Amino acid sequence: MTDAARSIARAMFRKAREIGELERVASDLSRLAGIASEPSVCRFLGHPRIPLADKERILAPSVSNGLVSNLLSALLTARATGLLTAVNEAFTLLVRRETGFVEAVARVAQPLSPEQDAEIRAAVKAATGLTPVLKVQVDPKLLGGVRLTIDGRVADNSLRSGLERLKERLQAI
């Protein structure tokens, strides 16, 4: 996620909260990002010979909020519609945080047992004070342990990472 997308999302979040439109803006952004991520729509939006007015006319029905409509116009004018997905992701994270949730990604070598899942959720809640929305990704290359990402911060307690650190220490001797 780029700094530009985070900055746009923060500005949109502040304004949407101010006018009491967080849910509508979140819904519009999600819908628009989904549409704009389709390969054929990406080609259409990126085509330099298609007038901006035509692009706006096609996408406008998916937007019910003036704030999102203004964002769409600005991104189309700047030929930066590729930012829509990242802006949507950043906005979603801000809304979740506002409502007491935090997104966490746990990369593990094998599927988690219910007890392990509960233990990771409890650790995330203890560390952040927020209820985790946990995504589990199985990556056998980790060999064991867990690599946890919360808000861009990584805690790597995987066996693979431990072995790499040990290798570095041994090579330094």
Question: Summary?
Answer:
The chain is α+β, with helices and mostly antiparallel strands and 173 residues long. The protein has helices at residues 3-18, 22-36, 39-46, 52-59, 66-77, 84-98, 114-128, 159-172; strands at 101-108, 131-138, 145-150, 153-158.
- What is the correct CATH architecture of the largest domain? Orthogonal Bundle
Question: What is the number of strand segments?
Answer: 4
Strand order of the largest sheet: 2-1-3-4
How would the global form be characterised? elongated
User: What name is given to the CATH topology of the largest domain?
Assistant: Peroxidase, domain 1
**Main sheet characteristics:** 4 strands, mixed
Number of domains: 2
Which CATH class of the largest domain? Answer: Mainly Alpha
Indicate the radius of gyration in whole angstroms: 20 Å
**Topology order in helix (H) and strand (E) letters:** HHHHHHEHEEEH
